[in-house]
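Exercise: predict the fold of this chain.
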Amino acid sequence: MVKKIVVMLLMVALLSSFVVAQDAVASIRVKTLPGHTVYLSVVDPSDDSYNFAILREISDQYGDANFKYTTNKSSQSNFYLKVKVKKASTQVFPEFGAGVHC
């Protein structure tokens, strides 16, 4: 009986070390004109010169560019967004726009 309890405790201790934190996923949609390249910069709100991630998508036939920003770090769960839109080599918005708090 004691052996079974010890084995059970060891199994619980071993299996609990395999618990993985869930990732936080943010789905972001940018609306623009069809066929434009959209750059989405996920920016640290405390230091807007530091990017958590820079994502790139081409807008679909409806002008939607869909992004998924995934993180498992609690320090990166609050962020600002900056957007830049280009068509071929012409920049529609020449600079990243103002940050949006999320």
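Check your answer against the key: The mean pLDDT is 76.
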